[in-house]
Design goal:
The protein has 395 residues and is α/β, with parallel strands linked by helices. Helices cover 38% and strands 14% of the residues.
């Protein structure tokens, strides 16, 4: 189903599945087999060498996992995709597939906490130079890229302060110096944003989040041109961070409603952001759908929806105040996840940046009184009333 005229909703339901169905089934089978046998040794060899389609061992490829990769590949309009067991598994595999000692990475300070740890702790160990720029200072990012850049890594909207980066502008800067441009599209999803069309070489997702949407399966996936994806696949098949077939099946099942869920979350998040923006106990709201948001105009240009993620800072600037709000929310899980059908809330200290110290979070502009809010698909009135009740418990 390679047809760009097909809508994201139809693509979410049908893409990648036609050739996998068997015995008149209407759903993708879960293939748990570890290995795949061949009576013909020559055919086996051709499959093993990648010269003929097929599977030999599920650490490398698996029929169910293939369908998942094909579906997200088509949603992102990419040539090829490969997956891993978690979002961090695919981020790690992507970075370490291309970076060697002596090379230079340019990124931003507001990446997901686990990604930030790779940049600040692990890549320097192998003598890779990492430059982290102020996230919305496009001039500074362009200047660092121009000095020399082997890989430009971007995330937009960012986690958890929902900052927006101009992908078209920075991708052009990366291309000028021959950098590989990588974009984490987890928060936006392919429904709201298409990084490859904006100039990125690779787009990746923590599939655990919005793609799966039901908080019951973990996975990561990266899409792009075949040459680059083949390199990441080779690294991932050797490091062994394989997506298991049952998780792939659960992610596929969740993706069938991706467009519906994201549409509802877009609509609800903007209403919640507006409500919080006028609330007397809220210091600041971070949501690109608000005209007051620093990145609003860029978001309007490169996104078709502003997403289900927002965050806000309480005027009562203490971690105890955060605890009060969370404890009094009825229709929200206080948990380290996002993008699910249920609303999920939490502070970065226990979610996105739990690996970082308080000082490190403060240096990133993440105060202790910030709450990340992943909008679910509940009725909007119930979510607004729930927030109002929880905020009323503050001093």
């Amino acid at each position: 189903m390679k047809n760009k005229s097909i809508g994201k909703g139809t693509c979410s339901v049908w893409a990648g599945e036609e050739k996998s169905l068997m015995q008149n089934a209407t759903q993708v089978p879960v293939v748990h087999s570890v290995s795949f046998g061949y009576k013909d040794a020559l055919q086996w060899q051709q499959v093993a060498l990648g010269k003929q389609k097929g599977h030999i061992y599920s650490r490398n490829t698996n029929p169910t996992v293939d369908v998942f990769e094909n579906k997200i590949c088509q949603l992102e309009n990419a040539e090829k995709a490969t997956s891993a067991s978690t979002g961090m598994g695919i981020i790690h595999s992507t970075l370490f597939s291309f970076l060697v000692p002596g090379q230079r990475v340019v990124s931003v300070k507001d990446t997901y906490g686990g990604t930030n740890k790779i940049f600040t702790e692990f890549l320097p160990r192998i003598n890779v130079e990492v430059i982290l720029c102020n996230t919305t200072d496009h001039e500074a990012i362009e200047a660092e890229v121009a000095k020399g850049c082997d890989l430009l890594y971007l995330e937009t909207p960012t986690n958890p302060t929902i900052k927006i980066i101009d992908l078209d502008r920075l991708a052009r800067a990366g291309k000028k110096v021959g950098a590989i441009v990588v974009v984490d599209n987890t928060f936006a999803t392919p429904v709201n944003q298409q990084p490859l069309a904006l100039g990125a070489d690779l787009v990746l997702h923590s599939a655990t989040k919005f793609l799966g949407g039901h908080a019951d399966a973990m996975g990561g996936v990266v899409c792009g041109n075949k040459e680059l994806i083949d390199q990441i696949y080779h690294y991932r098949e050797i490091n062994g961070a394989t997506l298991d077939p049952m998780s792939a099946y659960l992610l596929l099942r969740g993706m069938k409603t991706l467009a519906l869920r994201v549409e509802r979350q877009n609509q609800s998040a903007i209403e919640i952001a507006k409500y919080l923006d006028s609330h007397p106990k809220i210091e600041k709201v971070f949501y690109p759908g608000l005209e007051s948001h620093e990145g609003h105009e860029i978001a309007k240009k490169q996104m078709t929806g502003f997403g289900g993620m927002l965050s806000f800072i309480l005027k009562e600037n203490t971690f105890e105040a955060v605890g009060t709000v969370l404890a009094n929310l009825k229709f929200a899980h206080s948990a380290a996840n996002l993008g699910s059908v249920e609303t999920i809330v939490g502070p970065p200290a226990t979610t996105s940046h739990v690996e970082c110290s308080k000082a490190e979070r403060e240096a990133m502009g993440i105060p202790e009184s910030l709450i990340r809010y992943s909008t679910g698909i509940e009725d909007i009135k119930d979510l607004v009333d729930d927030l109002g009740n929880a905020l009323s418990k503050l001093k």
